[in-house]
Every structure is written in structure tokens, then in C-alpha cells.
Amino acid sequence: MDSSGREVLIFSLQFSWESMGDLLAPPGTLETLLGNEAIARGALEGGLNVAAAYPGTPSTEIGEALSLAAKKLGIYFEWSSNEKVAAEVAIGAAWSGLRSMTMMKHVGFNVAADAIFTLTYAGLTGAMVIVSADDPHCHSSQNEQDNRHYSEAAGLPMLEPSNVQEAKDFTKEAMELSYRYKIPFMLRTTTRINHQRGPVRLGEITAKGTIGKFEPPEPDRYLQVGAIARKHHAELLKKIKEIQGISGNYARVEGPQDSEIGIITSGVSYAHVKDALRLAGLEAKILKIGMTFPLPERMIGEFLRSINTAFIVEELDPFLELRIKALAKDYAPDLEILGKLTGHMPQVHEYTIRTVLEGFSKAFGVKSPIDFSEIDRRSSKLLEMVPPRQPILCPACPHRSAGYALRRAAGRAAFMGDIGCYALLFQPPFRVEHVTHAMGSSIGIANGVSLATQQDVVALIGDSTFFHAGIPALINAVHNKRKLTVIIMDNRTTAMTGHQSHPGVPYDAVGREAPSISIEDLVRAMGVNYVRVVDPFDHKGTEEAIREALKTDGVSVVITRRECALLTVRNIRAEGKKIVPYRVNKDKCTYCRVCINTFACPAFVDTGSSVEIDPAICFGCGACVQVCPYDAIEPQEGSLNWRDDKVGV
């Protein structure tokens, strides 16, 4: 690992540590923690030995926190190549008698599901917690899938915390329950739990080393074939029934016991319910459920018998509502049950206090003390005054240069995009992404489009995403003689989630030196004959490589290699150097606006009569110099030319 890479990594780790609460504070301490930090602390209190994950918002900070704690505590943490591998690393540790955890965002669970579904049949000798971080409202995701369905489908017991303290406590509890019942436990969170910050009372850290022993409890325990799997399925169902007997320990009834209105809720929705009841002045008792699979059926049934109307408050799908309606058939068949299925609550987006208040208004006729129409009116008026802002690539981002060259070289192609910062290239002026679907799908879908059309087909994929899910699709393209071009945009990190390591960089999750897997060697080994590595800041060279690739029969690969600009800037500053911006020579500028209309760096400022460069935004990379047809963009004294100086390559 070169010194600059090490400096960047150390800087990143220090930056992350300073942004966190004291994860390793002594027991009894009250610390302000992020929800994800609280989950990490709960795992440490639960005796964690091994953790593995692939970064994905809103779960990433759990891994960041554990990576910082790993060396101090002697535990193991890694950023795995994808979620399935991360789950399997945790499985292997749990089958060796250790306590493990894997963390992923909701769509990451889709990748890991194959291994997890079979795991519940096999069981464990140690313990394992699986964190699924759902993302209602698609804050950083491509869908709003509700992973509670996975728990029931896989036979995976599930706890759902409603605040930061419970995020810590339930993680520890999940680890203990997993060890007791020899089955993995799922901790299901949502964005507002993961990214909420609040006070947490800490317990004792019991995390320790990583020495276990692989010793199956019986010879066929981990052999899920035919008759053996059928036997294990029956065992799983029996175990779930046993766990159901304790699920009531994670539920409670609160509020006026004689109320005829009962609200059933879980997770962060519980907090919204509490606030909405107070604001509306509505008298109702609440059944808060903490273990949402298996449900405490008897407790729910008794609650239903005690009320005349049940109101279900839960984000996304009617998961609780459907199961409560089924229970009501036996316990309270005439009970009125209100929720999503009756149109009182929405089935999309995340909930707020307003959502719940509006549901109460529809159901019970209570008037909200807050005039939301007036808030909407004022908000609309304010938004009219604020210029619209769209998400943009950072100044000096190498993906901007790659998109610029790609547009010029292959503007008429069908562009298959992927998951990463470069997904923003769907916007003008680039328009080089017609598809953004799922991790690795750019190359997979390009396989299909190339055989179904006569168009030039280009797949864009990042370095981390390529290792995650792009390799099988590329192998498929080579084997089946597809004609397509793959642009692997190698910015030397997993940038979108905060600069985590991946197999293509020379260090691991905790900063130790590690073998770096060469993307170009790997691609050539797959049988790709046309492989070019270019610096995207060399616009002309990148354009030429793409044009040649499009003319090549079969599969062609162009690797645009330059590290994420944020890493480069950190490294420049760590070396004591100053970032000196470029400027526009007003005597040469013709106000043609080519720079803005084709390159769109946020440092450009349109004054109405000329273009200027905002020195507070410009990172001084010099990539824009090649864009101006009149050579009007110039360095200032002390400015670096990243391309000529090989900075960030």
C-alpha cells in the first residue's frame, strides 16, 4: 500500500471516529449515539466476535463503528464483496461457535437471501444477528420493499426497535436469543431509527477474540439436502413456536386501560403515535410490539377483546394489519380494524406525526391542532423563492469527465447504468444512463438489450459494484458472445457510502494492508480481448478508447481510473498543500457557455454575461481546461494540474 493511500485511510478513520459518540465508553455512561452506532454497541455488549457487511445506506455506519472498534477489542470486521458473502462469513463464524453479525440495507437482503433462507433450517452453534435496514420513502434506494416479509418467509425471528436506546438493547437481546435458541435473529430497522441520534445508557462490553472451532452438533446438521432439509424444516417450525412463547416479553400495553380505542404499532411508528395522541388529545391505549415475528398472538388477542376499535399504525405494507385481522377472527370477530386496508393510513412513504394525525382525523373525527394547510401554503411560497437544487457530482469528480467523454464518443448508444455516484449521469448534460435498476444489473441487462437490438450498448459500473455483482454478468456476456461495451468507473473506493474498502484497493476495512485485485487482469482472464485503462481527466484519450471499444466485436471493456476527488483533496491537504482554484480569463471568455452546457461542474457560475469559477467550490483539478474551446480557463499561481501531476491516479 503506498503512503498516500495509507494517509487517506488514516484520515478517513480519524474523521469517522471524531464524528461518532464514544462507542467504547464504560458501562453506566449515558452517551449520545447515532442509531447505527447504538446497534454496533449493542453487538459489542452481546459478545460479538465477527462482523461482515457490504456498505449500503442506511446501514453503513454500523460497519464504520465496528471497524474502528475492531483493533481495540480484538474482534474481526470486514467489508465483504457483497451481502451474500458477508452473510456467509458470519455464518461460518457462527458455525464455529462464535457470535457474529451481518448488516445490510433492505435491497442488500435480496442478495443475501439465498444463504439466509437455508440457514434457518441449519441453525447455529454460536449466535448470529442479521440487521436489515429498510428505507421507506426511498431516501437512498430504488424501492420501498418491506423486509418484514422475509422474516416470516424464512422463519427468521425478528425484533424491531422504536428508538436509539432500543436499537442498542434489542441488538444485544437478539444476540443472546440467537445463542439460546441456536437460530439467527433479524433486527429490522428503518432509516429514521438508523439515522436518529439520541441518549443511550450503555452496558458492559463483552466482545472478545475470534478463536472458535468448527464442530457440527450432529453429522448432518449443515447438509441441507432432500430428507435432511425436510427434517430440519420441521425442527425450525417447532423452534419458532417455542420463540413465540417469549414474544410477549417484547410487547407492552400502555395508556388508559378502559379506553375503547386501541392502537397497535411497532418500530419508529410508535414514537409518531405517542406524539400524535398528545397533540390530538385523543384517549387511546397502545399495544407496542417489539418482536414482530413470531407475534405474541395471545397478547394481541386479549388486547383486541378489550377494545371496540383497533387502529394499526405501521409503515409500508399491512404486515401487522393482515395478521391482526386473522387473529381477530378467533378473538374478536366483530371488532372494527382500521389501517391501510380501510384507507385510513397510506401504504407508501415513511410516516410522520402528520401522517398519523391525518389518520386519526379520518378514523375518529378528531381535529388536528396543527393547521397543515397553512404550513403547506407557507412551504410552497418559500419553495418558490428558493432556486431548485438537483443532486450533482462533486467538483473534480472523475465520473463527470468520464460522462463528458462518453457522451461525445457514444451519444447514440443505449446506456445501462448501475448503483453508485455515477448514476447521476442520467441528468443533463450527460444523459448517459437510461437504466438504473440494481447492483450489477447494468451488465446483466446489457446482455439482454444487446441480443434484442442492433444498437450500440454501453454498461456503466463502478469498481466496488463490479466486484459486488458485475463479474458473473460479464462472464455471461463473454461466454454468449454478446457485443457490448462495459465502462468500469474505478474511483479506487466505495465512494457513495463513504469511502469503504473493496477488493480492488490495497487495504482492508480496518486499515491493514491487503492484496489489491487487478480489475484489468480479472477482465482479461474472463476472455475479454479489448481492455483499455484510461485516466478520465484525459478527455481525448478516453473518447478514443470508447470509440475503439464500440467498434470491437464481442465484449470490450474500458476502465476509467482516477480516485474519488474527495480522497484526493483530503490527501493534498494532509500533505500540507493548498487547494488553489482555476479561474476564467474574462478577455478570452466569449460567454459561449460550452463549459456549463457540456461539463456542468458546480464551480461554474453563470453571471448572465460571462462565466466565472467560484473559488469556494473549485477543487483545482484542471479537468475543465480541456472543455473550453477558447482556452479561457486558466490556472492561478499555485494551482495543480491533477492530470499532468498524476494526482489521484
UniProtKB/TrEMBL annotation:
User: Cofactor(s) for this protein?
Assistant: [4Fe-4S] cluster
Give the record's cofactor note, including how many are bound: Binds 2 [4Fe-4S] clusters. In this family the first cluster has a non-standard and varying [4Fe-4S] binding motif CX(2)CX(2)CX(4-5)CP.
Record CDD domains = TPP_IOR_alpha, TPP_PYR_PFOR_IOR-alpha_like
Among its keywords, does the record have 4Fe-4S? yes
Molecular function, one GO term: pyruvate synthase activity
Q: Which reaction does it catalyse?
A: a 2-oxocarboxylate + 2 oxidized [2Fe-2S]-[ferredoxin] + CoA = an acyl-CoA + 2 reduced [2Fe-2S]-[ferredoxin] + CO2 + H(+); indole-3-pyruvate + 2 oxidized [2Fe-2S]-[ferredoxin] + CoA = (indol-3-yl)acetyl-CoA + 2 reduced [2Fe-2S]-[ferredoxin] + CO2 + H(+)
Q: Which sites bind [4Fe-4S] cluster 1? A: 589, 592, 595, 628
Kindly list the positions annotated as binding [4Fe-4S] cluster 2.
601, 618, 621, 624
Catalytic activity, EC:
1.2.7.8
Which top EC class is given?
Answer: oxidoreductase
**Record has Lipid biosynthesis as a keyword:** no
Report the residue ranges that make up the 4Fe-4S ferredoxin-type domain in this protein.
580-602, 609-638
What would be one Pfam family of this protein?
TPP_enzyme_C
What are the record keywords, sorted?
A: 4Fe-4S, Electron transport, Iron, Iron-sulfur, Metal-binding, Oxidoreductase, Transport
What InterPro entries does its record include? Answer: 4Fe4S_Fe-S-bd (IPR017896), 4Fe4S_Fe_S_CS (IPR017900), HACL1-like (IPR045025), IorA (IPR017721), Pyrv_Fd/Flavodoxin_OxRdtase_N (IPR002880), THDP-binding (IPR029061), TPP_enzyme_TPP-bd (IPR011766), Transketo_C/PFOR_II (IPR009014)
How this chain assembles, per its entry, is:
Heterodimer of the IorA and IorB subunits.
What is the stated purpose of this protein? Catalyzes the ferredoxin-dependent oxidative decarboxylation of arylpyruvates.
Name of the protein in its database record: Indolepyruvate oxidoreductase subunit IorA
